[in-house]
Amino acid sequence: MIDSNNLTFGLDTFGDIAYDEQTGERWNYTQSLRNIVEEGKLADQVGVDVFALGEHHRAEYVISSPDTVLAALATVTENITLGTGVTILSSDDPVRVYERFSTINALSNGRAQIMLGRGAFTESFPLFGYDVRNYEDLFEEKVALFNELLKGEPVTWEGHLTQSLENVQLYPKIEGQLQTRIGVGGSPDSVIRAARYGFPMVLAVIGGSPYRFKQYIDLYKRAAAKFGTPVHPVGLHSPGVVADTDEEAREIAWKYVKKTIDHLIEEKGVPAMTRDRFEFEVTNGSYYVGSPETVAEKMARVMSETGIERFDLVYGGGGQLQKDRFKMIQLYGEKVVPRVKELLKVGVTNG
After folding, report:
1. Which residues of the chain carry a pLDDT beneath 70?
2. What region does 82 belong to: left with phi over 0, alpha with psi -120 to 50, or beta?
3. Distance (Å, rounded) from C-alpha 53 to C-alpha 268?
4. Is 0.85 topped by the overall pTM?
5. Are 97 and 89 in contact (CB under 8 A)?
6. Would you state the pLDDT for residue 351?
7. Distance (Å, rounded) from C-alpha 273 to C-alpha 251?
8. Is Oxidoreductase found in the keyword set (predicted)?
9. What is the pLDDT of residue 152?
10. Burial profile 140-176: b = 16 or more Cβ within 10 angstroms, e = fewer
11. Rounded-to-integer distance, Cα 67 and Cα 55, Å
């Protein structure tokens, strides 16, 4: 049984641009960014542990520079951990990433957290001059360099796809350690990589049964034992909608999730979102949709049966009305999270 006193609950957003409930139109980019800062402030106020921002370089998302938004949040929040989900390290410069996050960490009094990932979309590669054919090699080399930089000492590094460094010290130095995680989408190689470097792992589970990912948690533990690295708590990142009632949450999720999936059909070749598939995901899959009680029961069940100790709910998928996003953050922090802890404390796994 997992310890309900040592759990972490986060809210993640990819920065989907919300809709104005008065006009029915999407907010402009300027207001969207300001709204996300307000969402982060609200998450902090209602006691959510982590607020994490994704990185996208596409028209329907407003966050291309999550660390800049986190820097803004660092000065207007008090307790919440400010993270990414994920920083696309493959198409970024590990030195600059270190410098940006050491700055956020200082501004937030040690509340910065970075999640490194390869990214599901590849727009950033040509945008920043990288060859997508080096997708895997870029990530492997840059994680290795970033791991050296995290030690906080002068670094000497011979780069192949990165710069070479000769006894270079980066500034500002991080006081303590920068919280660093690896986002994993289900590749065994990615799981083993996280264990090899001794990083905590967060599984991105956006469809299908969440229980099939238990094999990756077991693999992570076996790999960590083999490498002699720490076995950290494993996190899960999945989409959801919380509203006052199950019916309201389902209506919101169906409208906006379908829109998002349909938008990707041509581009990514993903299957169309049918009503049957949607209902499966809500009932047995990886969508956490419903009233606070419904969502809490499902989260508690999954966490208990998989041993997950961090749960990040991805909110705002497809945009949604701004008022519904604020409401969901409030319900998640004030009702869902306390109820999950309560259920896990008494060992309820079959809500």
Report:
1. 265-266, 348-351
2. beta
3. 22
4. yes
5. yes
6. 45
7. 14
8. yes
9. 95
10. ebbbbbbbbbbebeebebeeeebeebeeeebeeebee
11. 9
